[in-house]
Design goal:
214 residues, mainly alpha, three-stranded antiparallel β-sheet, 48% helix, globular
Length: 214
């Protein structure tokens, strides 16, 4: 990964990156507070949708793409690349291309909806992810250690086991509270690879995933 450090942002990239990063960190701080989930579902949904969108914009930056390729090539635990790239892109695309929902728990997709216009990224992700089985299920397990709270939380991403015209609810893939907390922690770890800081992260993510069965 030595070539990543040699890529320097241009003047216009620096301007955009500063805006996007500042907004991401503002949202991250808000969503990390326990009081956030006492807000109205519609308000929470708006903020969560925004942080997924900001993250998606930032992962298009070339050095971050290099990092994701490194993760996918085996630099991190199995399937982490699927989570930080494919899964989070799927969520962003689902919320962007189907702006018809008011809260996290109501969001759903099925094969007819995913292909109503053309078979694009949402359809491809659901096709791919429904074929991944870990211990005969599509569950990716993680533990989060929150240093300041001395708290260990066990969280799961549930990849859809079947892709058909039955509704697949987003809440069944990523839960709004614990699943989003894990998601934004992953996002921050990815984005922090391009930031120099003396501050140590208070949240540590530990994978419990084994290689998927062939």
């Amino acid at each position: 990964m030595s070539n990543i450090s040699e890529i320097k942002p241009s003047k216009k990239e620096r301007i955009a990156l500063e805006l996007f990063y500042n907004r991401f960190y503002d949202l991250y701080d808000e969503l990390s507070k326990k009081e956030f989930f006492k807000e109205k579902p519609e308000y929470r949904f708006y903020k969560i949708r925004e942080i997924f969108s900001i993250y998606k914009e930032l992962v298009g930056y070339e050095p971050i793409q290099h990092y994701i390729k490194y993760v996918k090539s085996g630099g991190r635990p199995p399937l982490e690349g699927l989570v930080i790239d494919d899964l989070f892109s799927f969520v962003r695309n689902l919320l962007l291309h189907f702006p018809i929902f008011d809260d996290w728990d109501s969001v759903y997709i099925n094969k007819d909806l995913a292909t109503w216009n053309k078979a694009a990224t949402i359809h491809k992700f659901l096709q791919k992810s429904s074929q991944i089985k870990i211990d005969d299920e599509g569950i990716i397990k993680y533990r989060i250690w929150e240093k300041d709270k001395k708290l260990m939380t066990y969280i799961q991403f549930h990849l859809p086991e079947e892709y058909s015209n039955n509704n697949i609810f987003l809440k069944d893939i990523i839960s709004e509270k614990e699943g989003v907390k894990l998601s934004i922690s992953f996002m921050r770890q990815v984005l922090d690879t391009q930031v120099y800081s003396d501050k140590k992260e208070d949240i540590t993510i530990m994978s419990q995933v084994c290689l998927p069965k062939q």
